[in-house]
Amino acid sequence: MGIGLRTKKSVRLKSLSKRMNRSIESFKGDHLEDSDDEVFEKVEQLEKISVKGKHLTPVPKQDKKVLCRGNEIDSEQFRRRMRRGNVTRYVGEGRKSVVRGRNELGKDVESAGKGMDSTSGLLKRKPSRWKKRDVDGDDSDYEQYSGYKDSERSNERIRKEEAVNKKFRFKRSKVDIELSKSKCDFVSEDAEIEKNGKGKGKENENSEQKPVRRPTRVLDKSGKKIRVQNKPGENGLMAPAVPKRRKRAIKIDPFDMSNKRLVDSDENGQQVDELVENVPVISKNGQFRAIRPSDEILSFVEDNLLGRRRLIELKNAGYNVKLSAPLDNIPFSSSEQRAKIEENVFRNKLEFFAAAKVSSSFPPPTIPEIAFAGRSNVGKSSLMNAITRQWGVVRTSDKPGLTQTINFFKLGPKLCLVDLPGYGFAYAKEEVKEAWEELVKEYVFTRTGLQRVCLLVDTKWGLKARDQELIDSMERSKTPYQIVLTKTDLVFPIDVARRAMQIQEDLKKNKSIVNPLMMVSSKSGAGICNLRTVLAKIARFVKP
Ligand SMILES: Nc1nc2c(ncn2[C@@H]2O[C@H](COP(=O)(O)OP(=O)(O)OP(=O)(O)O)[C@@H](O)[C@H]2O)c(=O)[nH]1
Ligand SMILES: [Mg+2]
């Protein structure tokens, strides 16, 4: 770099000596003792031109005579500008002018009238560095380029706009405060400040930058802080917001047999691990969880793998989980062993033979009947398929209300299974559902060959009012009925046991009830074998 600089210096010296009509030797001779840099500095002073960095090539000195459009601009001012922008030449309006000059970065620029400022005749530059004041296509947008009068005009306009804005903001804040005063019974903090005149100046100062804050926290008459709604109510008053209550998180342990609730957090959100006992009003769920099943029921549930179970548990117990109702098979059994149903009567083919919508169309009662009653979707039809292992003979659906007639199925010469329409919620008209209910009651009251009614109850929901109604009517007609808990695979084993205990307790005084209470799952097959055994006894004592 040093060499390059020296070369340029020598070139520069040469041109200077030429211009000043002095030989280089004579020039140097004056400053023999000076270093090159010092000589340069002196040359710079002489020429009054900037020699910075690499831009050592001087701009050739031009004639001071300047041609401007109509000589409108003060020549002294223009010259000053020219010096700042390093403009060297300008040819007037209407002619294609060539301007050579140097921009702010010290770079030589040559322009053929394209980048000219129309008023000042200065070289235009990309205006990104200038602060844009207003976007209206006016030249005064760019402070740097606008003439003195233009900039003054724009400044004045900006000042006016700011004054109007300020006035508007102040007015708005005043209206807001007055509104809140008149609408709200409480004395707002903000209004109080305004009233006392404290921070009034501050308010005005800040109003330029910040939007006025609407009062949301106010003081009531006792001086206590309360929240008010942002929007006024129907009557136009700012009503105090109702504080939101935190919901208590309750941990539920499926194996917890006590009626204790573990409270995770109190209302303030603080962690409190305390046992809440002796709650005066216990919910139905709480009452259910308070039930302590007997050891007998608990062991029965465990032995028969009732309740929700993991597949791995069933696999380990030797059941093939790929089969439908796998628990209705002998563990670690072959396919031949699996095909066997212990009770002969249930090995018979299940055959549909009659359907009745009204009592007059009931078939003659020649063989004993076992009816399956219960709420819609409780699993009556599925259970009939499961106990006979003949999937698909009785139609099932996840939509409540599929079975709408009393359907009679023959199971060999000795037994008849009857699928009753469900009651309670179903996708049917009210009057239609009432008709089903009446039909079921009529069948249960009047049917002579009816040996037993299996009243199916969903383990999850337990006995409902309509179940109780049917039980009462069967009690009155002395129809033997047996409670069968269904869908046990959907609840925890402990809850299966609790439900069994609960129903046994509720119905222990009933006379027509047949014990034991059965627990089954048509899906997993749990308890199906036991139900078969119980029902097969009915067929055994029938005389052909
Ligand atoms: N998980 C599970 N689902 C079951 C069980 N039994 C039945 N279901 C399902 O429950 C739904 C209703 O079964 P259905 O047998 O049609 O019930 P229903 O009592 O005959 O119903 P209606 O004919 O409408 O009175 C079906 O989607 C069955 O797959 C069971 O033991 N476990
Ligand atoms: Mg059905």
From TrEMBL:
Stated name of the protein:
GTP-binding protein
Against SUPFAM superfamilies, the record matches this protein to: P-loop containing nucleoside triphosphate hydrolases
Q: Where is the composition biased (Basic and acidic residues)?
A: 102-111, 193-223
EngB-type G domain location: 366-541
Q: Which GO terms describe its molecular function?
A: GTP binding; metal ion binding
What cofactor(s) does the depicted protein rely on? Mg(2+)
Quote the PROSITE patterns the UniProt record gives.
G_ENGB
Q: What is the lineage of its organism?
A: Eukaryota, Viridiplantae, Streptophyta, Embryophyta, Tracheophyta
Query: Could you list the residue ranges forming a coiled coil in this record?
Result: none
Which UniProt keywords are listed?
A: GTP-binding, Magnesium, Metal-binding, Nucleotide-binding
Q: Where is this region: Disordered?
A: 102-157, 193-239
Family classification: Belongs to the TRAFAC class TrmE-Era-EngA-EngB-Septin-like GTPase superfamily. EngB GTPase family.
Question: Which spans does this entry mark as compositional bias, Basic residues?
Answer: 123-132
A Pfam family in this protein? MMR_HSR1
Keyword Ribosomal protein (UniProt): no
Q: Has UniProt tagged this entry with the keyword Magnesium?
A: yes
